[in-house]
């Protein structure tokens, strides 16, 4: 069997997590000192600041097609 056209999906670009270093430092501090230790407050603040500055991604959703697909079940 031969295919005329071979369709492939493009590779997804793996983005590096921007706050991975702060998250690692937070987990390392928790492992060494305990979760409720006051020593980890600075790393927790650094992680919170990093996460606050992340850009938000808005996914465009075509609501018309969504509602039409739901109505098709009733026809």
* Strand segment count: 0
Instruction: Assign the structural class, choosing from mainly alpha, mainly beta, alpha/beta, alpha+beta, or little secondary structure.
Output: mainly alpha
Percent helix, as a range, is 40-55%
Mean pLDDT over all positions: 82
Rounded radius of gyration (Å):
23 Å
Overall form: elongated
Report the portion of residues in β strands. under 5%
| Low-confidence sequence ranges | none
SS element count, helices: 3
The run of helices and strands is: HHH
Q: Mind summarizing the main beta sheet?
A: none
Distance between the termini: 38 Å
Protein name: CHCH domain-containing protein
GO biological process, one term: mitochondrial translation
Organism: Linnemannia schmuckeri
GO cellular component, one term: mitochondrial small ribosomal subunit
What is the secondary structure topology, with strand pairs?
Layout: H1 20-33, H2 41-52, H3 63-72
Helix pairs in contact: 1-2
GO biological process, one term: mitochondrial translation
GO molecular function, one term: structural constituent of ribosome
Protein name: CHCH domain-containing protein
Could you name the key traits of this structure?
single chain, about 80 residues, mainly alpha, 3 helices, about 0% strand, CHCH domain-containing protein
Q: Can you give a write-up of this model?
A:
The protein is mainly α. The chain has a domain at 18-53. Helices cover 48% and strands 0% of the residues. The protein contains three helices and no strands. The chain has helices at residues 20-33, 41-52, 63-72. The radius of gyration is 23 Å and the shape is elongated. The mean pLDDT is 82.
